[in-house]
Design a protein that fits this description.
Helix content: 40-55%
Largest sheet: 6 strands, mixed, barrel
Strand order of the largest sheet: 3-4-9-6-8-7
Amino acid sequence: MYSLLLNLQYSKEVFYRRYRFADVFARLERAPETALRRVAEIEGVIDVRGRIVEDVPLDVEGNPHSVVGRIISMPAQRTDVISNIHIVRGSYFPGAHEREAIINQRFSEENDLDIGDTFEATLDGTRERLTVVGTAYSPEYVYLVRSAEQFLPDNRNFGLVYVRRTFAERAFDMSGAFNDLSVVLSPEADPEAVADRIEDRLDRYGMHLCYTREDQISHYILSEELKSIRGLALTVPLAFLIIAALILHILLARITEQQRAQIGTLIAIGYSKGAVAAHYLGFGAILAVIGTLIGTAMGYIITGRMLIIFAEFYRFPELVNRFYPHLALFSVVLVAGACLAGVTFTVMKVVNIQPALAMKPKPPPAAHGVFLERIAWLWDRLGLVSRTTVRTCLRAKTRSLLSLLGVIVSVMLLTVGMWAGTWMEKMIMFQFGMVDNSDLNVEFRREKTPQAVTELSKMPGVRHAEGILNIGFELRKDWKSEDLAVMGLAPQSKMYNVYDDDGRRVPVPEEGIIMPSFLMDKFGLTVGDQVELEAFIKDKPVSRSHIAARTKEYFGLTAYADRRYLARLVGEGDMVNGALLSVQEHDIPTLIEILKDRPGVINAISTDRLMQSFDEMLSEWIIIMSGLLTLMAAIISFAVIYSTSAINISEREREIASLLALGWTPQEASGMVTAEILPMGITGLIIGLPLSRLIPHWMSYAFDSEVFRVPTDIDFYSNVQVAAILLVFLLIARMICLQKAAKTNILKALGTRE
């Protein structure tokens, strides 16, 4: 896991540095190029760049969906500009034709666009045919999403289109102007302070948003992913190392107990206690070296596979699986430390052994009744095997507790594996099965009156239409602030539902906003608190609103309000900038084609397409990650169960031999001593399943972010799967132990050990 983190960090740092990823960004309505000088004069600013950036509808042959392209202006000649691009295929504007375009590599792959192919873009109402001359990667779009509300990349339906600056100026009537600003700072500059000064100096030009690299969408999502990987890299191996140390401790503790006579004899005939202790320390060291070598090789292979998966989400020019010798050496030291920690207690017992006492057979423990014998009506109904099993478990407390602990750990490990394979499916089903009930999501280029929604409702196949209003705000409470998207919903919306933390539907109030629980907890807010909201719209005053309710969300940070109330917050009457449509399934493709050519509509995407995009992007990642975790958990679980069961058989070898000598058959004798495996396993399962429910809550505290939050509930089906797997392991372990016990040599087991 840590090598994966290092590989991603290295690729990110090289890409950012080589292609001059900006430190501060700003979106404006329109500013003259002369304003760049005012920004360059700010202390700490090294370089500035003004661009023209606009989202426009695209028409790509072979793609039936609504496609959006982000037009980004570039210099006609290749120079070392801020947020430069890395050419993957083709050339950088090789000809004199102004309609040449460079598109991002993944958009090219998803739409089968090769060098020389063409597509159409609607620029300010004019359709232009652009020719692909190259494909590229950009440090600004390592993780390519259109907005913070889009949770996953949709590489087929959203692409980057780089065009000459002169073409963008003509297409959008922006001659000598820009609407997007990128700034590079000196290392000692304070990005937040510079961003504030830029906002003050350019506010007259319709400042929509000014933010630092830390808040840039691609960088933020990548950084959060790296934080999650770092957390996993530190916690998961540590958990497995603790389990390995525990298993090793149990194993060696029982081995030394069986070999106490041999240990006493060796010390008595002249071997030093240090030499004997070194033998057991060497046992742990050898296991550490072998385990590290195997683990390093497997880790390198798995890291390579995971990098391929991450390349589906994060696009770097170079993403290589490097081998880190210092990390391998550290792993050896760490694993050796865990193994030696596991044997230390045993070694201390070895050093303190008195030869004279050790050479004698250990006296049997004093027999005594167990508390169940006092419950006569229950005890009398138990057979001989059941009574013996109960007495054995309750008298050999240490052995029983260790076996029980092994099963509990196994249950928790298996539960984590099963949970990891279901949480993404739960998130998707919650978002598209409960929250968003629409079939088609339509986005307008500008705000419109509700009449635009009425017109949509009359289109072929539309059963119901609701207008929505999406506005970005800066949320403020005391000294804290956060960028927040607020969705205005229609009164008594049928297309979009909001739920609280307990899964109850929350009606949208006429006044106030419904705030995400994650953000409320982060700010220490409660229902009824007042907050300040500054819209990212030119010349809009700061407004105040109260928090009406909490809402549970798994993706992003979106607050909700009544659409008319939201419009009043920004000083406007009822308006919409999008619509949710319920459409007959067979009419969806036709309606998308109609909306592609409809003036004022920038995008129309079906809910099924969003779900398909989620599935395409995440299915392989979920299968590999959850499968790997479940496999590791299964291997360790079986190792724990089998090792504790096998050692129990070795410790009770004399009991088995005694029963055989008394005339019991091998099947009867082995059945007697292995009868406790299933009861102990079921007891551990009963205790482990409730405890395992704490793990998702712990992981949610560790890994929840503004990008996504994981569901903490474990469904009944997952518990059934864990129980079934564990019972299979228990039965296999018992079968192996039965065979082992049946092969016991009576003479050897009952022979005098002195």
